[in-house]
Amino acid sequence: MGRRVVCDTVDNFEVLLASGATVNANLGANPDLWRALRGGPNNFDIATSFTMRSFNQDNYWGGSIIRDGSHIDELLETFEVFTGNPDYDPHATNILNPIWQPASDLWTLAL
């Protein structure tokens, strides 16, 4: 099985169109709208419900590490160890976000 993204698992969208009509968009009904909604920008309609298929994600890990700015060296080292590992998954996503909070004059770091 190839790599999956969430939009590949949507079988049906129930949508409210600008005309006021509520329609289904799926492979059999309104297939052009269905294809456009799967990963397209959200300016076609208002989705009122959708039906998705579940699938086995194998090993799925997620979460955040959030620290104040004094931990920058520790978080940069963690980021380097994780992404520099020879067994690193090339499909994994990691972002180190420095966040400035002007009201408190503090930096927060999220990994």
From TrEMBL:
Keywords: FAD, Flavoprotein, Oxidoreductase. InterPro entries: FAD-bd_PCMH-like_sf, FAD-bd_PCMH_sub2, FAD-linked_Oxidoreductase. One of its GO terms (molecular function) is oxidoreductase activity. Gene3D superfamilies: 3.30.465.10. Belongs to the oxygen-dependent FAD-linked oxidoreductase family. This is Uncharacterized protein. It comes from Apiospora kogelbergensis.
